[in-house]
């Protein structure tokens, strides 16, 4: 009997062995790729251990308590001082408001001149009558008028004056005093005539002191400037009656 070789017998076996051999070499290469050799540059750096916490001693705590008490005492002393300063300031302000002297108030109540006589003799040769009220607005403060004089002017020209209107007069708190008198004529040129209605001006100058519970202030020079418009009949016009005068000190 003749035997026949089938194609692919030994060759196929050889081929199969070749494939088997090829598969074994590939597996060895895969195993080699799975091993990684460590490199010195890739290793993590060595970190120092965290520092140990120092435990606070009793001496340290005592020092902190002492500092805290000192700070609190300083704040307390400052708060007490500021509180006392505020109280003293408020009391001083209240006393200043209650004891602060106010200026006296002057009002022209009446003023008159004889227009016919003024036209005949001249304005400088005719006396002028006036009535003024002086008000002390202070609650607990009196006013001592050591002296007072009054002058009357027309167009800034002196018409007459009275030197001793008041002398050593004590005006009590919340008091109103009426001052009425006649200003004598200054005398002079009879050609000085008035254009009616005529604008006159009364000027009061007084030396005064404020009296507070038996204590007298220093002497002040008071000025009161009172405009007065007289009509054709020589009397004070209604819009100027009881008009408040401007008062100032020098």
UniProtKB/TrEMBL annotation:
Its main location: membrane. It is found in: Membrane. The chain crosses the membrane at residues 76-97. Residues 1-27 are annotated as: Disordered. GO terms for cellular component: plasma membrane; plasmodesma. GO terms for biological process: defense response to other organism. Residues 8-27 have a biased composition (Gly residues). Keywords: Membrane, Transmembrane, Transmembrane helix. This is Late embryogenesis abundant protein LEA-2 subgroup domain-containing protein. It comes from Kalanchoe fedtschenkoi (Lavender scallops).
